[in-house]
Every structure is written in structure tokens, then in C-alpha cells.
Amino acid sequence: MSEKISACIMTFNEERNIERCLKSVTWCDEIVVLDSYSADRTLEICRQYTDRVHQHTWQGYIGQRNLIRGMATHSWVFFLDADEEVSDELREQIQAEFEAGTGDYVGYRFPRRVFYLNRWIMHGEWYPDIKLRLFKKELGHSVGEEPHDQVVVDGPVRTLSGPLYHYTYEDLTDHIKTINRFSAISARAKYESGYRFRWIDFLFRPLFRFLKGYVLKLGLLDGRRGLFIALVSAFGVAVKYAKVWEYQAVKKAAESRSTDEGPDPSGNGPV
Predict the structure, then answer these.
(1) Domain spanning 5-166: which CATH class is it, in words?
(2) Helix (H, G, I), strand (E, B) or coil at 267
(3) Could you tell me the end-to-end alpha-carbon distance of the chain, in angstroms, rounded to an integer?
(4) Other CB atoms closer than 10 Å to residue 109's CB: what's the count?
(5) Is residue 21 a contact partner of residue 82, using CB atoms and an 8 Å limit?
(6) CB 62 within 8 Å of CB 144
(7) Is 5 helix (H, G, I), strand (E, B) or coil?
């Protein structure tokens, strides 16, 4: 291929997943890893596949993506998470595109298929879950609202059919633990962007999320797993807005205490 690809992978304590991911991109011209100071065997495993292993304090999903993009040395960047894997079908399609020439295309998107509770999920909000992850380095960057980043590019994009596999959660406990972490990140981001708690959002957005995933997007066809996914997703939305309220209440209480204390008559600060 005349145009070269840098596979860019972010990691943090991913010894359980990282080798599967790395093996799936050995066909790329370069593998770049950006680690957030893992405490397990992640770095040891990564160094078996590439010498382009870097560490940096966590900058958020969007900041970390843009940071690793700048570390890539080739003209095309392929973003991957440590718990993802490039399927043989997707690899073959990408290689065919690049061997034939990418033409005017500056990016490629493809479906992401999730492996959940020992089965592939084929409906609902989790599939096809189209992701733009392969793009020309100088014509794309990451944007969005934490913790959900997305790539935007300046130019035409082609959609491929080969899937990117995602081994997202180990079990239901892991799923709920991630919902708790992501809802906190999202709530803080919403508050800092100027949003304030509204009962209508707290009451109706979770219901809409459930109906969208389970009914409108046919999550019901994935059986009990589809029901679990829709319920936990709706729960995550409710928790996010509850955390906005909590964050807002804490800030208000802190401001109230500061006002009640008043200034020190001596001019040396609060008494």
C-alpha cells in the first residue's frame, strides 16, 4: 500500500484485552500506544508488539485521542480502544481500499459489534453503532462531550461493512460499574457547559432511551440481553441527571457557606 496507516491505541490497565487488540492490527505500518500509567502488565504486553509505547497523564477521552493522533508518523490514523479487535473482514476491506487507492476519501467508517454476556449483540443501540475511526491525520480530529468522543473530518467518507469487534463488559457488574463512572463524567461535563437539572429530563429521558433501544431499534430481538442493555442504558441516563442535580446542590451549598461566613473584619479573609 502506498499510503501508510498508524494504529493508535489508548490503554489503562488493559492486560485482559490488549493482546487481542494488538494482534488484530499487526498488518498496519505502525502501532502507537498511549498509556495512562497502567499498574498491571499492559505495558509489558504492548512492548512485545511495538516500540512506540508512550505514557501521559489522562487528558480525558477527547484530549487523549488528539494527543495520540499527533504521535502518529503516517498519513492515516486508525483509532482503537484496547477492548476492540479488527475483524478479518474489516482488515481485508481496508487493505483492498488502500491497494486500489483511497481517491478523494479522507475517512472510513464501519459498524462496531459488541460481545456481551457470551453472545454477539445484533440489534438495539449497540448495533450497527457506526464509527469513523480511520482517517487522514491532517484532516480529522476528535470532538464531543466527555466521555463520548467522535472523529470529524474535512472531506468525503466511505462506509465499509466489515465489523470492528468490541468486548466491552466482562459481566453485568462491570457494565454497571462503567455506567457509574461514565455518568459521573458526563454529568460534570453537562454542568460545566451550563446545563442545570430539569425534572422533565430526569423523568422522561430514561423512558425514551429504553423505548428507543428496546422497541424502536429492535433490541427486543436480542432476547434477555437486549432487555438488560435497554434497562441498564435507561438507568444510566437517570443516574446522569441525578448526578447533575447532586453536583449542582453541592456547588450551591458551598457557595452558600462562603456567603454566610462573610469577610474577615481584619481584611485577612473569611472568619
Answers:
(1) alpha beta
(2) coil
(3) 70
(4) 18
(5) yes
(6) yes
(7) strand
Give the angle subtended at the CA of 140 by the CAs of 137 and 145, to the nearest 5°. Answer: 130
Amino acid type, 69: R
DSSP state string for 99-110: HH--TT--EEEE
- Non-local (6+) Cβ contacts of 109 within 8 A are 130, 131, 132, 133, 134, 157, 158, 159, 160
Three cell numbers written together for 156: 468525503
Are 109 and 131 in contact, with CB atoms under 8 Å apart?
yes
How many contiguous H segments (helices) and E segments (strands) does the chain have? 7, 13
CB 14 within 8 A of CB 37: no
> In the 8-state DSSP scheme, what is residue 26?
T
53 Cα distance to chain centroid: 20
Backbone angles phi, psi at 217, to 5 degrees: -100, 15
- Could you give the CA distance from residue 95 to residue 259 in angstroms, rounded to a whole number? 63
Query: Which triple of cell numbers denotes residue 38?
Result: 497502567
The rounded distance, in Å, linking the Cα atoms of 220 and 216 is 9
- Alpha-carbon distance of 239 to 177, in angstroms, equals 12
Q: Give 55-109 pLDDT, tens digit per residue.
A: 999 999 999 999 999 999 999 999 999 999 999 999 999 999 999 999 999 999 9
Burial degree of 80 (CB within 10 A; 0-12, 13-18, 19+): buried
User: 137-173: per-residue pLDDT in tens?
Assistant: 999 999 998 888 999 999 999 999 999 999 999 999 9
